[in-house]
Protein backbone atom coordinates (compact mmCIF):
# COMPACT_ATOMS: atom_id res chain seq x y z
CA UNK A 1 0.00 0.00 0.00
CA UNK A 2 1.41 3.34 -0.98
CA UNK A 3 1.16 6.54 1.03
CA UNK A 4 0.08 9.69 -0.76
CA UNK A 5 1.60 12.91 0.52
CA UNK A 6 -0.52 16.02 0.12
CA UNK A 7 1.50 19.21 0.25
CA UNK A 8 0.29 21.68 2.92
CA UNK A 9 0.08 25.37 2.12
CA UNK A 10 2.36 27.31 4.48
CA UNK A 11 0.67 29.56 7.06
CA UNK A 12 1.07 33.32 6.83
CA UNK A 13 2.44 35.35 9.73
CA UNK A 14 -1.08 36.52 10.75
CA UNK A 15 -2.40 32.95 10.68
CA UNK A 16 0.47 31.76 12.83
CA UNK A 17 -0.26 34.41 15.49
CA UNK A 18 -4.08 33.83 15.49
CA UNK A 19 -4.60 37.61 15.72
CA UNK A 20 -7.37 37.79 13.03
CA UNK A 21 -9.37 35.04 14.80
CA UNK A 22 -8.99 36.68 18.21
CA UNK A 23 -10.09 40.07 16.81
CA UNK A 24 -13.07 38.44 15.09
CA UNK A 25 -14.15 36.78 18.36
CA UNK A 26 -13.74 40.04 20.30
CA UNK A 27 -15.90 41.88 17.71
CA UNK A 28 -18.67 39.30 18.15
CA UNK A 29 -18.48 39.74 21.93
CA UNK A 30 -18.58 43.55 21.59
CA UNK A 31 -21.68 43.35 19.35
CA UNK A 32 -23.50 41.27 21.99
CA UNK A 33 -22.51 43.69 24.76
CA UNK A 34 -23.87 46.71 22.85
CA UNK A 35 -26.98 45.02 21.38
CA UNK A 36 -30.40 45.03 23.07
CA UNK A 37 -30.79 41.91 25.26
CA UNK A 38 -33.06 39.15 23.96
CA UNK A 39 -33.92 37.83 27.41
CA UNK A 40 -37.36 38.48 28.92
CA UNK A 41 -37.37 38.74 32.72
CA UNK A 42 -40.45 36.60 33.31
CA UNK A 43 -42.77 37.09 35.26
CA UNK A 44 -41.93 40.79 35.77
CA UNK A 45 -41.96 41.27 31.99
CA UNK A 46 -44.52 39.46 29.86
CA UNK A 47 -43.65 38.36 26.33
CA UNK A 48 -45.64 39.81 23.46
CA UNK A 49 -48.30 37.32 22.40
CA UNK A 50 -48.53 36.94 18.60
CA UNK A 51 -51.84 37.02 16.72
CA UNK A 52 -53.38 33.58 16.34
CA UNK A 53 -51.75 32.25 19.50
CA UNK A 54 -53.39 29.06 20.74
CA UNK A 55 -53.52 29.11 24.53
CA UNK A 56 -55.79 27.60 27.15
CA UNK A 57 -59.21 26.41 25.87
CA UNK A 58 -62.12 28.03 27.74
CA UNK A 59 -65.89 28.30 27.53
CA UNK A 60 -67.44 31.70 26.75
CA UNK A 61 -70.85 33.20 27.39
CA UNK A 62 -72.90 35.43 25.12
CA UNK A 63 -73.20 39.19 25.88
CA UNK A 64 -76.27 38.48 28.05
CA UNK A 65 -74.31 36.05 30.24
CA UNK A 66 -75.95 32.86 28.93
CA UNK A 67 -74.13 29.65 28.06
CA UNK A 68 -73.36 29.26 24.37
CA UNK A 69 -72.52 25.55 24.60
CA UNK A 70 -75.35 23.21 23.51
CA UNK A 71 -73.58 19.92 24.38
CA UNK A 72 -73.20 18.80 20.79
CA UNK A 73 -70.02 17.02 21.93
CA UNK A 74 -68.16 17.70 18.69
CA UNK A 75 -65.19 19.11 20.60
CA UNK A 76 -65.07 15.95 22.73
CA UNK A 77 -65.10 13.70 19.64
CA UNK A 78 -62.48 15.68 17.70
CA UNK A 79 -60.00 16.07 20.60
CA UNK A 80 -56.95 13.90 19.71
CA UNK A 81 -55.78 13.21 23.30
CA UNK A 82 -59.37 12.93 24.62
CA UNK A 83 -58.84 15.80 27.08
CA UNK A 84 -62.47 17.01 26.93
CA UNK A 85 -65.35 15.28 28.75
CA UNK A 86 -68.94 16.52 28.44
CA UNK A 87 -72.04 15.25 30.21
CA UNK A 88 -75.12 16.64 28.42
CA UNK A 89 -77.99 17.93 30.49
CA UNK A 90 -81.62 18.77 29.75
CA UNK A 91 -83.00 22.30 29.76
CA UNK A 92 -86.28 22.59 31.70
CA UNK A 93 -89.37 23.15 29.52
CA UNK A 94 -90.39 26.24 31.50
CA UNK A 95 -86.97 27.91 30.95
CA UNK A 96 -86.70 30.91 28.58
CA UNK A 97 -84.00 28.95 26.73
CA UNK A 98 -86.23 25.88 26.24
CA UNK A 99 -85.99 26.23 22.44
CA UNK A 100 -82.34 25.10 22.72
CA UNK A 101 -82.12 21.31 22.85
CA UNK A 102 -79.60 20.81 25.66
CA UNK A 103 -76.83 22.38 27.71
CA UNK A 104 -73.80 20.83 29.38
CA UNK A 105 -74.47 19.41 32.81
CA UNK A 106 -70.73 18.85 33.26
CA UNK A 107 -67.86 20.06 31.09
CA UNK A 108 -64.24 19.24 31.92
CA UNK A 109 -60.94 19.83 30.14
CA UNK A 110 -57.89 18.01 31.45
CA UNK A 111 -55.06 20.49 30.84
CA UNK A 112 -52.44 17.78 31.47
CA UNK A 113 -53.70 15.99 28.36
CA UNK A 114 -54.52 19.03 26.20
CA UNK A 115 -52.07 19.57 23.32
CA UNK A 116 -53.37 23.07 22.43
CA UNK A 117 -54.16 22.02 18.86
CA UNK A 118 -57.21 24.27 18.51
CA UNK A 119 -59.44 21.63 16.92
CA UNK A 120 -62.09 22.11 19.63
CA UNK A 121 -62.43 25.80 18.74
CA UNK A 122 -62.54 25.11 15.00
CA UNK A 123 -65.23 22.44 15.23
CA UNK A 124 -67.57 24.26 17.67
CA UNK A 125 -70.71 25.32 15.72
CA UNK A 126 -71.82 27.72 18.48
CA UNK A 127 -68.42 29.39 19.03
CA UNK A 128 -68.70 28.42 22.70
CA UNK A 129 -65.11 27.23 23.15
CA UNK A 130 -62.19 29.59 22.58
CA UNK A 131 -58.45 29.37 23.02
CA UNK A 132 -57.42 32.32 25.19
CA UNK A 133 -54.04 34.09 25.42
CA UNK A 134 -53.28 32.38 28.74
CA UNK A 135 -49.92 30.65 28.47
CA UNK A 136 -48.81 30.22 32.06
CA UNK A 137 -50.66 27.38 33.76
CA UNK A 138 -49.27 26.04 37.03
CA UNK A 139 -50.37 24.08 40.07
CA UNK A 140 -49.22 21.80 42.85
CA UNK A 141 -51.55 18.83 42.34
CA UNK A 142 -52.90 17.01 39.28
CA UNK A 143 -56.47 17.86 40.23
CA UNK A 144 -55.76 21.58 39.76
CA UNK A 145 -55.24 20.99 36.03
CA UNK A 146 -58.73 19.60 35.42
CA UNK A 147 -60.82 22.65 34.56
CA UNK A 148 -64.50 22.14 35.35
CA UNK A 149 -67.38 24.06 33.79
CA UNK A 150 -67.30 26.87 36.37
CA UNK A 151 -63.55 27.46 36.00
CA UNK A 152 -63.78 27.32 32.19
CA UNK A 153 -66.42 30.08 32.23
CA UNK A 154 -64.33 32.16 34.66
CA UNK A 155 -61.33 31.95 32.33
CA UNK A 156 -63.39 32.53 29.18
CA UNK A 157 -65.63 35.46 30.05
CA UNK A 158 -68.02 36.75 27.38
CA UNK A 159 -67.67 37.24 23.63
CA UNK A 160 -70.04 38.78 21.09
CA UNK A 161 -72.51 36.33 19.57
CA UNK A 162 -73.10 36.46 15.82
CA UNK A 163 -75.67 33.62 15.85
CA UNK A 164 -78.26 34.90 18.35
CA UNK A 165 -79.48 31.34 18.96
CA UNK A 166 -80.55 32.23 22.48
CA UNK A 167 -82.60 35.26 21.41
CA UNK A 168 -85.75 33.72 19.98
CA UNK A 169 -87.26 37.06 18.96
CA UNK A 170 -84.10 38.32 17.28
CA UNK A 171 -83.67 35.03 15.39
CA UNK A 172 -87.32 35.09 14.30
CA UNK A 173 -87.01 38.70 13.11
CA UNK A 174 -83.87 37.87 11.11
CA UNK A 175 -85.60 34.85 9.56
CA UNK A 176 -88.62 36.95 8.61
CA UNK A 177 -86.38 39.59 7.06
CA UNK A 178 -84.51 36.90 5.16
CA UNK A 179 -87.73 35.40 3.75
CA UNK A 180 -89.05 38.87 2.93
CA UNK A 181 -86.01 39.62 0.76
CA UNK A 182 -86.34 36.48 -1.38
Structure report:
- The protein has helices at 13-17, 19-34, 74-78, 119-123, 149-156, 168-181, and strands at residues 57-59, 84-90, 102-110, 129-131, 146-147.
- It has 182 residues and is α+β, with helices and mostly antiparallel strands.
- It has a domain at 57-162: Alpha-Beta Plaits, CATH 3.30.70.3270.
- The protein has a 3-stranded antiparallel sheet with strand order 2-3-5. It has a two-stranded antiparallel sheet with strand order 1-4.
- It is elongated.
- It starts with 12 loop residues before the first helix and ends with a helix.
- The model has no long low-confidence stretch (mean pLDDT 86).
Key features of this structure:
5 strands; alpha+beta; Alpha-Beta Plaits; elongated; two-stranded antiparallel ribbon; three-stranded antiparallel β-sheet; single chain; 182 residues
Helix and strand topology:
Blueprint: H1 13-17, H2 19-34, E1 57-59, H3 74-78, E2 84-90, E3 102-110, H4 119-123, E4 129-131, E5 146-147, H5 149-156, H6 168-181
Antiparallel strand pairs: 1-4, 2-3, 3-5
